[in-house]
Structures are given as structure tokens and as C-alpha cells.
Design brief:
The protein has helices at about 25-40, 60, 70-90, 115-120, 140-150, 185-190, 195-205, 220-225; strands at about 5-10, 45-50, 95-100, 110, 125-130, 155-160, 165, 180, 180-185, 210-215, 230-235. By secondary structure, it is α/β, with parallel strands linked by helices. The protein has a single domain (about 5-235), classed as Carbamate kinase (3-Layer(aba) Sandwich). Strands 4-3-5-2-1-6-10-11-9 form a nine-stranded mixed sheet, sandwiched between helices. Strands 7-8 form a two-stranded antiparallel ribbon. Helix 1 (about 25-40) links the parallel strand 1 (about 5-10) and strand 2 (about 45-50). The model has no long low-confidence stretch (mean pLDDT about 90).
Length: about 240
């Protein structure tokens, strides 16, 4: 039985690098597209937000001649590049897909509106939200939370390279403890860096539950949709 019928999936841009140091590894792109296809075929309405860190890191560019605003806009453009790549990959797998951009840039993609989102879902399309919120000073985590709330998602699914939320960085601290379930309030007081504070607040105030999981585990995304506890469940 399908537990969640409308979800937003958030992927980092770095996840598309695969074994590289930048750019897009075709094998990784197709692997993630295949995971998205596995849930879209269950008639789940899927929204997708992809970061742009594999293309450009705005904050790192600030001390190299870019001011913050220009750096953030460059980061937004990077998310559009990743969105186009994912759109192409999904379509190559036979899925209908629509790319919406927070900054108008036809014919690359359609400008974002809730009406277009609803139209796309009614047509059975996967919707890719790109260019962040369209404003500097906001991360793609915030964009993911915002779009999830706007589309009425039942769950925000954040794919990472670790299998959930830990008390410390498990790659640095062997004594780090994994949480199977945690509340937004508890996570905040423990200072756990799940998402940036703006995104975190959006989820908490709108009672949007979240799952943080290992996107590289084959079939994990589908298991979540079917109600299996994978990763860490974050609830109101």
C-alpha cells in the first residue's frame, strides 16, 4: 500500500558528481532518475529540487571576486543546469517531466506558478523546481521546503550520502548515534544541522514531516513511499 501520494524530493548537486570533483556524472544522473521513476510509476505526484553545488559554490566565490548576490544568482543558474540534466534523464526513461524556474527564462523552462504545478500533476508529470526561490540569500533547502508546502506535499524527502541524522558527523565521529525518529523541536535544541534554519522553520510551522535518508541505497526511495522506515523521520 502506498503511504505517501504527493512528495517533494530534495537532492544535493554534489550527489550528481558521482566519483568526480565537479560536474555531472552520467551514471549517477541515470541512477537517481531511475529511483524517481520507481515512485512516479506508483502514481505518486513527485516534485524535485536539486542543488547546484556541483556546478558552482556561490559562497566560496565571494572571496574570489564575486559579491554575495551575484554568487547566489550564479548558484541559481547552476540548479537550472542540473534541472535540465535531470529532465533529460527522466524523459529518456519514458517519464513526462516539467521544468519550472523561479526566474523566468523561457524557452529553458516555464516560470514557476502553482497553477502550472497543479496542471503538471494532473497530466502525470514529474515537476522539477529550479532556480531556488528566485531570490538571493536563500538556499535550495529553503526552496525545497517552500515548494513542498506550496504543492501540498505530504512529506519532504531529503537524500544525502549518509543513512539518516546523527548526533554528530558519522564520517568524523565513530561514536555518533543515529536517530530513527526525532521531532523538529528536539532537533533544534540539539543543534542538529538537518537543513538551514529558514527551511527548518517552514517545515515545522507547516507540520511538514521530513525523512533524511541515504539516496545511494538502491530502492530506498520506493521503500519510503511504501511506508517502510528508512533513514530518520523528522516530525512536528
Amino acid at each position: 500500500m502506498i503511504r505517501f501520494k504527493k512528495v517533494l524530493v530534495k537532492l544535493s548537486g554534489e550527489s550528481l558528481m558521482g566519483r568526480g570533483q565537479f560536474g555531472i556524472e552520467p551514471e549517477s544522473l541515470i541512477r537517481y532518475a531511475t529511483e524517481i521513476k520507481s515512485i512516479a510509476e506508483l502514481d505518486v505526484r513527485v516534485g524535485l529540487v536539486i542543488g547546484g553545488g556541483n556546478i558552482f559554490r556561490g559562497l566560496k566565490g565571494v572571496d574570489k571576486g564575486f559579491d554575495r548576490v551575484k554568487g547566489d544568482y550564479m548558484g541559481m543558474m547552476a540548479t537550472v543546469i542540473n534541472g535540465l540534466a535531470m529532465q533529460s534523464a527522466l524523459e529518456s526513461l519514458g517519464l513526462r517531466c516539467r521544468l519550472l524556474t523561479a526566474i523566468r527564462m523561457e524557452p529553458v523552462g516555464q516560470g514557476y506558478s502553482r497553477q502550472l504545478v497543479n496542471e503538471a500533476f494532473e497530466n502525470g508529470e514529474v515537476v522539477i523546481f529550479s532556480a531556488g526561490t528566485g531570490n538571493p540569500f536563500f538556499t535550495t533547502d529553503t526552496a525545497a521546503a517552500l515548494r513542498a508546502v506550496e504543492m501540498g506535499a505530504e512529506l519532504l524527502i531529503k537524500g544525502t550520502r549518509v543513512d539518516g541524522i546523527y548526533s554528530a558527523d558519522p564520517e568524523k565521529d565513530p561514536d555518533a548515534v543515529k536517530y530513527d525518529e526525532i521531532s523538529f523541536k528536539e532537533a533544534y535544541h540539539k543543534g542538529l544541522r538537518i537543513m538551514d534554519l529558514t527551511a527548518f522553520t517552514l517545515c515545522s510551522e507547516n507540520s511538514l514531516n521530513m525523512v533524511v535518508f541515504d539516496i545511494n541505497g538502491p530502492g530506498n526511495l520506493k521503500k519510503i513511499i511504501l511506508g517502510e522506515r528508512i533513514g530518520t523521520f523528522v516530525k512536528k
